[in-house]
Amino acid sequence: MPRITAKICGLSTPETLDAAVAGGASHIGLVFFPKSPRHVQFGQAAALAQRVPAHVLKAGVFVDPDDALLDAAIAAGGLDVIQLHGKEAPERAAAVKARSGKEVWKALHVRTSLDLAGAGSYRGAADRLLYDAKTPEGADLPGGMGLRFDWRLLQGFSHPLAWALSGGLDAANVGEAVGITGAALVDVSSGVESAPGIKDVDKIAAFLKATAQL
């Protein structure tokens, strides 16, 4: 097992999903959020999920989802992980975990150290925190915009849960990011794209090669 594992998020085609699996990704991410250029339909998710071997975990990414959407997506995508990327409170995260029986990740949107203050409230409610860059107020998307936050904010931070690093990562900077933060799991989306929502098989391969060498 590599010391650093990687999730390739926002996959939507067989070719790019296969590249993520072949490159050694530990997780693949399917986005269920219509405003996102990476959004997948249930039928599309089901077809992609069938290509994922058992040792790679399938994460569904949601923004303030209702139970009906979660149920449908879990059924279609055979999801192992529910990633909550909106403004879900700890109570909602706990309810999703109890109802679905799945591993739950909660994204924390970070710009300053104050944004880390609420991390502890998810102890017992979520299984993992995902530190991502906070997008501008009024932005249509809560992530996947290639933004990064000051990774030094995580230096010395007492993490209340298992965690992953996201936000503006790519093959060129993931080594620096891991060196500063100590992340053991990294999550990339826009950093392996040629255009918003268009994953690039060569960039996926380069990112996974870079993480495997850390």
Describe what is shown at a glance:
InterPro entries: Aldolase_TIM, PRAI_dom, RibuloseP-bd_barrel, TrpF_fam. The chain is α/β, with parallel strands linked by helices and 214 residues long.
How does this structure look, described?
It is an enzyme of class 5 (isomerase). Strands 1-2-3-4-5-6-7-8 form an eight-stranded parallel beta barrel, surrounded by five helices. The chain has a two-stranded antiparallel ribbon with strand order 9-10. The chain starts with a strand and ends with a helix. By secondary structure, the protein is of the alpha/beta class. It is built from six helices and ten strands. It has one domain: Aldolase class I (TIM Barrel), CATH 3.20.20.70. 28% of the residues lie in helices and 22% in strands.
Instruction: Report the count of strand segments.
Output: 10
Report the portion of residues in β strands.
15-25%
**Helix residue percentage:** 25-40%
In whole angstroms, the N-to-C terminal distance is 12 Å
CATH topology: TIM Barrel
Instruction: Tally the structural domains.
Output: 1
Overall pLDDT: 94
N-to-C order of helices and strands: EHEHEHEHEEEHEEEH
- Major beta sheet summary: 8 strands, parallel, barrel
What class would the helix/strand composition place it in? alpha/beta
Radius of gyration: 16 Å
- Helix tally equals 6
CATH class: Alpha Beta
Question: Looking across the biggest beta sheet, what order are the strands in?
Answer: 1-2-3-4-5-6-7-8
| Uncertain stretches of 5 or more adjacent residues | none
